[in-house]
Amino acid sequence: MSGSYYVPPQSKWPALGSLAVGVMMVSLGMQLVHGIGGLVMTLGMAAVLTVMWLWFRDVVRESRQGLYDAQMDRSFRWGMGWFIFSEVMFFAAFFGALFYVRVFAVPWLDGEGAKGVAALLWPDFTASWPLMNPPSESISGPREVLSPWQLPLVNTIFLVTSSVTLTIAHEALKEGYRNTARNWLIGTILLGVCFLVVQGIEYYEAYHHYGITLQAGIYGSTFFLLTGFHGAHVTIGAITLSVMLMRVMKGHFDRDDHFGFEAAAWYWHFVDVVWIGLFIFVYVL
Amino acid sequence: MAPKLPPRLPPQHPLEQAGEAAGPAGHAEAGYHHGPKGLLRWLLTTNHKEIGTLYLIFSLSMFFIGGIFALVVRAELFQPGLQLVQPEFFNQMTTMHGLIMVFGAVMPGFVGLANWMIPLQIGAPDMALPRLNNFSFWLLPVAFTLLLSTLLMPGGGPNFGWTFYAPLSTTYSPPSTTFFILSLHMAGISSILGAINIIATILNLRAPGMRMMDMPLFVWTWLITAFLLIAVMPVLAGVITMMLLDINFGTSFFNAAGGGDPVMFQHIFWFFGHPEVYIMILPAFGIVSAIIPTFARKRLFGYASMVYATSSIAILSFLVWAHHMFAVGLPLVAELFFMYTTMLIAVPTGVKVFNWIATLFQGSISFETPMLFALAFVVLFSIGGFSGLMLAIAPADFQYHDTYFVVAHFHYVLVPGAVFAIMAAVYYWLPKWTGHYPNERLGRWHFWTSVVGVNLTFFPMHFSGLAGMPRRIPDYALQFADFNMASSIGALLFGTSQLLFVWMIIKCVRGGEKAPAKAWDGAEDLEWTVPSPAPLHTFETPPRFQHQEH
Ligand SMILES: [Cu+2]
């Protein structure tokens, strides 16, 4: 460590990025509250993605120019690691909500628990999970629930396999087999896309044939909250891996210097682990 | 804790020592810094000192905006009956006061100090990820412009208290609540990214030779704070996302009619909320642990125990959240569990207070302004801590819950606690930032008016609370009139005296007694080895840190 830590000069991307995030958020609010602003929101999101593209392009260029030393590499590792930890906590809140509802809220509405007063609200309510009959008549529950052993199982196989193929791609990269790495990475991305397609089919089924909707009481709420945010993360992960695919093909990565790839892989494995939790606690149990 | 440096100073840039200082950062010299000048320079900067300054200025502006909201509240409560504002607007004022002070003033204030001081205290050339640092800051003005603009929206701004309990904040909330949620999302992203940056900096950019247990306590407390931020800000994001869905998409998370539970909101919120109060106080502990040894001219007593105490507080903070919910109808076993874990926190906190006092013992103490604020912190924060212990007793809390006693408690830990610590830090490090000592006479005036103002405002609230005055109401029964009048007079005094603070800062930036590199003779940490004002770029070649036994 001899003063080689790279401190970037001024950059316009962060400030433009916060402006773009602001535009996106305000127009999202306008869309939700007043029903106008959808177009601006799309533009805002495009602006966010563009800024990210340009910002990361600067980072890639600096890295390719050899401006980064081993210490900088560690900064990126800590940064990505803690970012994933923050994502873990984001999902922890949602899982916490699911457990709280299943273990406490729904049984209490049926009179369980030391206090038992919540049962006075809807005396006829009977607790069950999945909750098919929400306490109030005004909310109609799902008609049927999805079997975990059909589409969700297929998706589990897709994601677990994709973690394996990604690891093979990584090993190939470490051994210097660029084409092999490329092929396995393509396979990984395709598995991710398959996952998303199947999830799309599942959502369609849920809405149109099973009566599982966002408005179908707490079962639909937790179902779409957990699977929806997970799906969004699969999408982000697949986009990131696609960028890494481009970089593999451009020859950006050395055998022992490819943290961009590793970071994307960490993220993908994290998304995979979340899915295992989902499969067990949302679908099976 | 007193790390000693070898006599060799890190390389300095001679041109930076020139007299004129254009900003609080005290460096506007051309040549070194390529890139735009003026406003654009602040918009595009990647420099930790400039970003730190931006954070501090932002925090100060929010402190005044939130303070004005508080004064509206206190003006209405000056006498019983409705005089100045409508109850609806009163609710918006209490809510916005809390939100602005917590997320806009105190948190960014500490992040600003972290930006300025952590690289200087660990001998780093900058923050680990400087562009991310700029992004974290510039999200804040966007977020808070949106938050403040909700006051002008149809139906008014958030009016459900800063804790935004469902269903007040979902079923019965104004339409602007969606915008409130989105602005809080942006502030949360800013906090998470800022915390990631701080952790990466501390773990990775310490000067060669500086071990973890050599770090100044401000760095240690910020390391733990950053961990708490990364752990709980996403939980806040999660709970407001569920609110957003309940409001806009008909989900039932906090709606018992659909099988959800409004009490679940409180659980998730306070899982974030209790660590959040430590996020606002741990860096304050670090600041006080820097200032007291400096002006007592003694090493900090019990450095290692301070580190362990801070860590235990952080761990315990995840196990106490439901002490905010004793009156909501928890099962008995939960009441007991959360009562005992909460009282356990008094142990590490007591260790800290003991260590500060032991540091003072037999020191050769002088009472410059930073020290005055730090000492006031120890005394007044302890009062807040003790009222916290009273609140932790579940059966007693049934009496205090949602009364002014609670308001007194958390304002004692936040105003003469967190805010005084930020002020102490500003007085302490201003010589490093500007190259000038703060005006001691002004500082003393500011200190004494603030201390009197704070106590006059919040001490009577203990009594009105114990006598049963509920919080968050614009009108009250006659027997509380005297206490409230005293509180309102105190608030006006405290608010006005902050103008002295601003005046002092402006004076200090523009001139004043020149400060040497080591501005306080008892100060030992690395930041005092670079010139005052600190040049724009410091420690570009890391200094060699030599370990010394504690
Ligand atoms: Cu608490």
UniProtKB/TrEMBL annotation, chain A:
It is an enzyme of class 7 (translocase). Pfam families: COX3. It comes from the Bacteria. It is a multi-pass membrane protein. The keyword Membrane applies. It is found in: Cell membrane; Membrane. This is cytochrome-c oxidase. It comes from Onishia taeanensis. The lineage of its organism: Bacteria, Pseudomonadati, Pseudomonadota, Gammaproteobacteria, Oceanospirillales.
Automatic annotation (TrEMBL), chain B:
This is Cytochrome c oxidase subunit 1. SUPFAM superfamilies: Cytochrome c oxidase subunit I-like. It is a multi-pass membrane protein. The chain crosses the membrane at residues 54-75, 95-116, 137-157, 177-205, 217-245, 277-296, 303-322, 328-351, 372-394, 406-430, 442-463, 483-506. One of its GO terms (biological process) is electron transport coupled proton transport. Residues 14-27 have a biased composition (Low complexity). It catalyses: 4 Fe(II)-[cytochrome c] + O2 + 8 H(+)(in) = 4 Fe(III)-[cytochrome c] + 2 H2O + 4 H(+)(out). Residues 42-546 form the Cytochrome oxidase subunit I profile domain. NCBIfam families: CtaD_CoxA. It comes from the Bacteria. Its EC number is 7.1.1.9. It is found in: Cell membrane; Membrane. Residues 1-27 are annotated as: Disordered. The lineage of its organism: Bacteria, Pseudomonadati, Pseudomonadota, Gammaproteobacteria, Oceanospirillales. Pathway: Energy metabolism; oxidative phosphorylation. It comes from Onishia taeanensis. Cytochrome c oxidase is the component of the respiratory chain that catalyzes the reduction of oxygen to water. Subunits 1-3 form the functional core of the enzyme complex. CO I is the catalytic subunit of the enzyme. Electrons originating in cytochrome c are transferred via the copper A center of subunit 2 and heme A of subunit 1 to the bimetallic center formed by heme A3 and copper B. GO terms for molecular function: cytochrome-c oxidase activity; heme binding; metal ion binding. Belongs to the heme-copper respiratory oxidase family. The keyword Heme applies. Residues 1-13 have a biased composition (Pro residues). Keywords: Cell membrane, Copper, Electron transport, Heme, Iron, Membrane, Metal-binding, Respiratory chain, Translocase, Transmembrane, Transmembrane helix, Transport. GO terms for cellular component: plasma membrane; respiratory chain complex IV. InterPro entries: Cyt_c_oxase-like_su1_dom, Cyt_c_oxase-like_su1_sf, Cyt_C_Oxase_1, Cyt_c_Oxase_su1_BS, Cyt_c_oxase_su1_dom, Cyt_c_oxidase_su1_bac. It is an enzyme of class 7 (translocase).
